[in-house]
Amino acid sequence: MNKNNYEIIETIGKGSFGLIRKVKRLSDGKVLARKEIDYKRMTEKEKRQLVAEVNILRELNHQNIVKYFERFVDKDKTIIHIIMEYCEGGDLANIIKRCKKEKKFIPEAVIWSFLSQLVLALNECHNGGSGTSSMSKPHPPILHRDIKPENVFLDKDQNVKLGDFGLSKIIESENEFAQTYVGTPFYMSPELINESCYNAKSDIWALGCLIFELCTLEPPFQSKTQLGLSAKIRQGKVENLPHQYSPELNRIIKSMLTVSHEKRPGTQDIMKVGKIRSYIIERELQQKMQELCLKEKELKRLEGSLKEKDLALKKREELIMAKEKFIVEKEKKFKVLISQQQINEETKISFQNNFSSFSSKGNSMIGFSNGVLVDSNFKENF
């Protein structure tokens, strides 16, 4: 495949190294997103990050992670094209911006849904493809390292899709920690502020910041200076959510924003929380129902196919039986004809024999001459 297999619809995003286009795949008309990255001006480190992103995207296959399709390189123009799932619902940053403008809060049920789906996506990353609803092959644990509203997308059905794994890192061993600072300053974890090593729990901190911002429409920690921001993050003091949100939601967010990463919950812990667990169970049931519906459709299709085959077989059997009947009738007629011919032949032979006998006797005439019996073949005179 190459870029000529796609028709450009519009440009939907731009960055320092390239842009993202909405494209249509010509083979089937499917709408996708194409990330076009110019690697000519990249440093070796940035090129390695780019390769790592592609490798990570190929590893992940989960319904709450933006799906990777393929990649190809235009060496003449030094551009790599990454084909991904198109999320027409936009990102969470746009939702926050719209709610601010309209001065309204996101309903709590929607917040729980977003949180549940993001936890499932992170569980897929952190637990190497062994999590709930995983469709991936087992892979090394992956840290996202840049969870923020701009990197969480929605599809047409408002399902959450975690995307942009450009800063992600594959952790080769369970005890390995990432060393370098990356990510969004407002969502930096205390261990990053303290220049300490960190693991998957830094993603949990960022998730807590994101959910807090969805509820309040503001980040949990803000300051006009980096020093002031760092001080607030180290303290970890988080205000309560607006009154319309439940204590349960307030508690789970504060637990994700625990200063000590050792005491911070992991994805498996968060998945045990009542409403999240209920969401997961409900989704698993929906998935099973969908699978059953697909199986039912397939069975109906097979049943219809079998009925068609059965009908075709019956018609074929009827045709064969009709042919057999025709052949039997022909055989009967043939036998009658042969029998009649044999009778005719026998009659003819009998007639010929009788005629022949009669002819031979016709040469020896018997009669009376002058009152005396005379045989013409009898030469002797008496």
TrEMBL record:
Binding locations of ATP: 35
Gene Ontology MF terms: ATP binding; protein serine/threonine kinase activity
Family to which the UniProt record says this protein belongs: Belongs to the protein kinase superfamily. NEK Ser/Thr protein kinase family. NIMA subfamily.
Reaction(s) the record says it catalyses: L-threonyl-[protein] + ATP = O-phospho-L-threonyl-[protein] + ADP + H(+); L-seryl-[protein] + ATP = O-phospho-L-seryl-[protein] + ADP + H(+)
Domain Protein kinase: 6-280
SMART domains reported in the protein's UniProt record: S_TKc
Lineage, highest ranks first: Eukaryota, Fungi, Fungi incertae sedis, Chytridiomycota, Chytridiomycota incertae sedis
Key words of the record: ATP-binding, Kinase, Nucleotide-binding, Serine/threonine-protein kinase, Transferase
KW Ribosomal protein (keyword) present: no
EC annotation from Swiss-Prot or TrEMBL: 2.7.11.1
Source species of the chain: Clydaea vesicula
Record-given protein name: non-specific serine/threonine protein kinase
Superkingdom of source: Eukaryota
CDD domains: STKc_Nek2
UniProt xrefs under InterPro entries: Kinase-like_dom_sf, NEK_Ser/Thr_kinase_NIMA, Prot_kinase_dom, Protein_kinase_ATP_BS, Ser/Thr_kinase_AS
